[in-house]
Amino acid sequence: MSSTKFLRLSQLSLVTSALLSGHAFAAQEKEQPIEKIAVYGQHHKNYITEEAQSATKLGLTIKETPQSISVVSRALMNDFSLDDLNSVLESTPGVTVEQIETDRTYFKARGFEITNFQVNGMGMPQDNGSIQGTLDTSIFDSVEIVRGANGLMTGAGNPSATVNMVLKRPTYQTQVNASVSYGSWDSKRLELDASTALNENHAVRAVFTKHKAESYLDRYEQDKTIYYLAYEGQLTDSTVVTANYVNQKKDADSPLWGALPLYYSDGSATNFDESTSTASDWSYWNNTTEQLFLSIEQAITNTWFLKASYAHLENEQDSELFYVYKTPDRETGLGLIGYASEYDHKDKHDILDIYATGKFNLFGMEHDLSFGVNQADMDNDDMSLYDNENGFPRMPELGGWDGTAPTPTFDDGLTGADITSRQRSAYISTRIRATDSLSFLAGVSHVNWETEGESYGKAKDKDSDQTVPYYGVVYDINERFSTYASYTETFVPQTERDINGDYLDPITGKSSEIGLKAQLLDDNLFVTFAYFDAKQEGLAIAVPGSQPDDTRYYGADGINSDGFEIEMSGRLNDTLSASFSYSNVNIDGDELVKDYTPENQVKLALTQKVPQIDGLTFGLNYQWQDDTQRVQPTQPSGVVPVTKQDAYGLLNLMATYDINDNVSVNFNINNVTNEKYLHSLFWEQGYYGAPRGYAMSLNWQL
Predict the structure, then answer these.
(1) Rama region for 534: left / alpha / beta (φ>0; ψ in -120 to 50; rest)
(2) What pLDDT, on the 0 to 100 scale, is given for residue 400?
(3) Positive or negative, the Cα torsion across 399, 403, 404, 410?
(4) Interval 493-535: pLDDT, tens
(5) ∠ CA 78-82-86 to the nearest 5 degrees?
(6) What is the pTM of this model?
(7) Which backbone phi and psi does 226 adopt, to 5 degrees?
C-alpha cells in the first residue's frame, strides 16, 4: 500500500460523503444519470472539502463546521492494523481509551465519558459509554470523531465527543480484496471484501472476517466472526435506497472481569508480570451484535432532499465470570477472594430518523437549512446468578496461579434489570451567510427521554424534557485560513430525587470552543488549532445526613475542563504523509477524574515512501501520555495507597511492500521498546498492556 493512501485526521473521504449526503443526488437533473463514484481506500487531496453530517446535517465541509472534527481513514486502519475500535480511538487526538477489562472499555474526551455513538450518522442512545467486546473495524470505511457537546444530533450525552462509525458502501466498480495475517500469540486473521454492480443502478458489497488469537495474558483467547452485507439502489432518477446488515460475534475464553489488585495491604504497589490474569480457566464472555440499517433518500428539487432512516440493533451477552477482590499480603501474596457470577444481557434498539435538508436564497445569498425528527426505543434486560456455596474461593498467590477454581453451580441470588426507554427529539439547524466569508450557524433540538423499570433493586424511572441549543460562527480569513467559535449543549437524565421527592433536573453539559483551521500545501495539508471549555451543571450530590435507604440529592456543578488541541494531517510531499496532534486538558471539580486522566497527549503517525525502491513504504505510529495516578481507599492500617503510572510512549512500526499492482505484504511491530504500562486507572484495579508483538499480512486486490 503506497503512502498516498494514508490520511487520518480532519479530512473526510468521498466514501463518507457519498454515504451520508444526498447533495450529489439532489444536484442531478432528472434526465441525467446519477454518476457512480467508486472509491476504495485511496488518498485524495480533496477529502478535506467533503461533507461531515455528524455535527449538523447541513452538508458542510469540515472547514465550514465550527467544531473539532477528526477522521480515522480506512488507509490508516490498514497500514497500522487498527483492527478494533479501541486501537482506532487510541490514534485520535484528545481521546483516552480506558480499557478496564479485556472485554469492556470506556472512552473519554475532554475529561468526560463518551456516551454518544453513531453508525452512518444515526445515533445509538445509551446510558453509559461502556463497550462490551471489541468492535471490529473491518466493516468500516472511516470513523469520525466530533469533539465537544453534540446534543443537536445525538440528544442525551456528555460534552465529550461523538463517535460516528461509517460503514463501507457498495461500489459500482467491481473489486475484490483479501487479506490473511499472522502475529504474536498465534493470532490468525482473514478478511474478505467484495463489491460489484448488479447493473447500472444497483450495487452490493459483502465482507467476511475471521479472527482467532491467544494472548499475552494467561489463558485468554478470543474468536471473532463478522458478516457484513450492503446494498445500494437507485429506484428512480431521484430516489436512492440503502440497506446494511451487520452480524458480529466475539467469544472470549478466560476474560478479565475486574482486573489485578494494584496495591498490597501495606499500601505498597504491586508489580505483576504482564501476563498475570485473574480469570479462571472455566470463565467465558460471549458477545453477539446484530444490526440492520435501512434508508430511503428522495430528491425533492435540485437543492432539497428528504431522507428517512431506520435501524434495528440487538446485542446479547452470555457469560460466566470470575472476579477477584480484596488486597494481597506483600510477603505471601495471599488474602484475595474469588467471586463467581453468571451474567446474561440483552438489549434492543429501534431507531427512526426523518429529516429534510437543502438550500434557500435570502437577501441575495444562498443559505442552508435542515430539520427533522427522531425516535429511539430501547429495551434492556439483565440477569445475574451466583453460587453461595462454591462461588467465593480463597485465592492462592496470583503469580503462580494456573486458573484453577471450583466450578460453580449458578442457582443462587437471582437478580437483574428490566428497563425500557424512549428518546424522542425534533431538531432544526441553519447556516446563514452574512457575506461570502462570514457565516452564522444556529440550531435547536427538543428532546424527551422516558425510562421505566428497575435495575438490581433500584427504580430507574425518569422523564426528562430538554431543549438543546447550538450556535456557531465561521469567518474565512482567506482561501487558506478560517477562524470559528461555537457553543453547544447536551444533557443526561437523572433518577435521583431532591428533598421534596421530585426527580432532579437533567445534568446539563455545556461546551464552548474557538479555533483556527487552515488548508496548506495546495490543499494537501489540514491544520486545526482549538481551545475549549466544557462543564457540567446539575450533577446529583447526596444531601448530608440523608438516610441510606432514602438518600436525597441536590444539583451541583460537576467537572469543568478546559484546554487546547492542535492537529496537522495530510501529505507533506510526494513521498511523506504525516498526522500529528497535541492535546492538553485541565480538569476541576473531580480530583479522581483529574488524577487518572492524562493532562497532555501526543500522537504521531508517519508514512514515508522510499523513492529508491518502488513499492516500499515505512511508517511509525507513536502515542505518548504524561503521568497519571489514582488515590486508593484508606486501608485498615490507616495507609492511603496511591497507584502511579509514569509518563510513557508506545512506538509502533510498519513496512509495506507492493509486490505488484495486486499483491502487497505488510509487517507491523507494536510496542517496539517493550514498554510496561497499565491500561487504565479508571477503576481501583487494572492490568498491563501488551508487550512487544508483531503481525505480518499478505494482501491481494483485484
Answers:
(1) beta
(2) 87
(3) positive
(4) 888 887 887 878 888 899 999 999 999 998 888 899 999 999 9
(5) 160
(6) 0.89
(7) -130, 130
